[in-house]
Amino acid sequence: MAFQALYRRYRPQRFREVKGQEHVVAALRNAVRDDAVAHAYLFSGPRGTGKTSTARILAKALNCEDLDEGEPCGVCEPCRAVEAGTSLAVTELDAASNNGVEAVRDLIQRASLGTAGRTKVYIVDEVHMLSNAASNALLKTLEEPPGHVVFVLATTDPHKVLPTIRSRTQHFDFRLLGASLLTEHLREVAADAGLEVAAAAIDSAVRKGDGSARDALSALDQIVASGGAGEEDASVDEVVEGLCERDTARALGGVALACASGADPRSVAAAIAAHLRDGLLSLMAPDLVSLPDVARERVADQARRLGPAALVRALEAVGDAVLALPNAPDPRVTLEVALVKVTRPDADTAPAAILERLEHLERRAREMTTAAVEATSPLVAAPAEGAQPAGPPAPAPGLRPPVGVEGASPTIEPGSVPAPGDPSAGGPGPVPSGPSRSAGVPGGPAEPAQQPVRPPSGAPDAGGLDQAGTASAPRSGGAAGASQGRPSAPAGAPAGGAPTGGKAAGAREVLGAARGRRDEAVATPPPAPQKPALGSLGATRGRRPASPPTPPSRPEPAPAGAPPSAVDGGEAGAAAPDLVQLSGAWASEVLPQLSSVSRGRFSTGRFVDVVEGSAVLALPNAIMRDKCEEKRPELERVLALHFGRPVPVRLTVDPSVGAEGGGAATRPGDAEHEDHIDLDDLVDAPGDARTGIDRLTEAFPGAEVLGDA
């Protein structure tokens, strides 16, 4: 017996053998069983889905002598004649080659003739290829055929069929087969035919079939004849792997491998596009991927590595290449250029490529930042056995520790610092040399720490180092406030002895930290308005705003014999700023540091005098003075931060301030350059004796007055 293709050998012969078209099979079987067969049917769907085979099964069922619930027996003479193609009751017409009106007229003439069977079935394949004249000639017979005639029209494009034909038929839509169903069908065929086919070959045939049973069986025939899966599948997979790895050489190598095996560049491009489409579907709608399980997992992995954006861009590039291939002088070059653009975004000037490069740079920057943070994270060393961790340095008097810091010292409000030697406070005591304990525990003793000692006569001044290597307290008024925010020396440091390099370096670090905190306090916006005591304004420079109150504790003792200036920073003895300093700093440095509301109120005033160390600020009226009185503590705080010492402010009323323009503070001596005009010396201009008529005639020369108005 001559060789017969698998799709012909395993064509379905009964309704139950049709794969994937249960909705069509059930309707036709019930119609045959109930004797309710229509006079015309229209089968539409992709190629290889069973349209013509189902029409032949219907013809067998209509002429079968032993029906079984609508199923043909396949044994009787009419069934065997239809299967062999020798039945006179079945007439097939290929409309693709017989699309003229003459072929249709001949069919109509023979339709009225009877046959040996019960029903005469006309199968018109590719009916959409009929010409308009042939379609119109078929209309009348199709609408009112003889009682023993049934028409079955098959087409792959139902939209090209005339609407008048579609309206005269029952339309059944055939669907593509799923990957799992097609794989199972191929395995059954291979087992029944005795073919030894690997699972990879079955998957390749399913992929090439793309839902069509006939195409899948033809691909299986070709794979069996060639001894295995073709190299085109491997080359397409190699190309996609090159796209995932951004390896241009690998992608171009896959194209070269496919072309060397005899594949056409256009078919290779179409296969790459189909592969990328399956990958995109695996990300967006996995249920729509019609691939075997192994191929589905591999495609999904490649899609995850590429990402949705790169997949879309690759599909667009390969799709454009497929459209350009028919008109390209060398189709392979067009495909290779498209793959280079996908793997090398810097070779593409399209906006999508530029966007992908930017996203890649941002992703790399985030990865590098994360790696740098992990590499530079501090390593916390475990303390030595038996060693106690040193507590935080005790804060200077009047400082408020940061909120939420473990072990921070309790808050000491302004004015709560006792005088040295006060018995009620416990008086100064010796400084312990052991490790300090945290003073932040309620009810615990305050943390003792070594206080900065005022240097003896002849020692370095202004924050220098004494002979013992400890920080000395500055005596100048400008640096007095900084000493309030300076942390004490580490607990346990010796109070005297020969200077050593380690002690001097530690003192320099303490001084540098204190000065840095002073600069930070100046640059930090002022806290909420509050009227501080005059003796502790310098301490507010190191305070953080809006910290919750904490229970007070015993203040830290000062060194024995230290003068009062060593505790309060020597602010009482500092000289108050004069009127020139106040006026010079008012508009350019003081006002900008105030809040917007305070700046608007104080901008109408200016400093006019300094009385007993208090700056006198003149305002234009009593109402403005009362409003500014509410913001006076904020102004005093900003002045104290600027001049390094408390500057009390008195508010007064001077109407001339408003007449002179308010906040433009003037320096003494500027009034010499102003022009003083005595209003009594001014002479009134003579009155204008002209009438209105005189003015009109002057305004309009040549005008004449005709009469009194």
Structure description:
The chain is α/β, with parallel strands linked by helices and 709 residues long. Among the domains are: 6-175, P-loop containing nucleotide triphosphate hydrolases (Rossmann fold); 230-355, Zinc Finger, Delta Prime, domain 3; 478-486 and 518-545 and 575-668, GMP Synthetase, Chain A, domain 3 (2-Layer Sandwich). The chain is built from 26 helices and eight strands. Strands 2-3-4-1-5 form a five-stranded parallel sheet, covered by helices on one side. The chain has a three-stranded mixed sheet with strand order 6-7-8. The protein starts with 5 loop residues before the first helix and ends in a 10-residue tail after the last helix. It comes from uncultured Acidimicrobiales bacterium.
Poorly predicted regions are 379-505, 526-573, 661-674
CATH superfamily of the domain at 6-175: P-loop containing nucleotide triphosphate hydrolases
Q: Kindly state the mean pLDDT as a whole number? A: 74
Estimated structural class: alpha/beta
How many helices?
26
**What is the 3D shape?**
elongated
Helix content: 40-55%
Specify the CATH class of the domain at 6-175.
Alpha Beta
Rounded radius of gyration (Å)? 51 Å
The CATH architecture of the domain at 6-175 can be given as 3-Layer(aba) Sandwich
Question: What is the total tally of β strands?
Answer: 8
Major sheet size, sense and barrel closure: 5 strands, parallel
- The fraction of residues in strands falls at 5-15%
Spatial order of the strands in the main sheet?
2-3-4-1-5
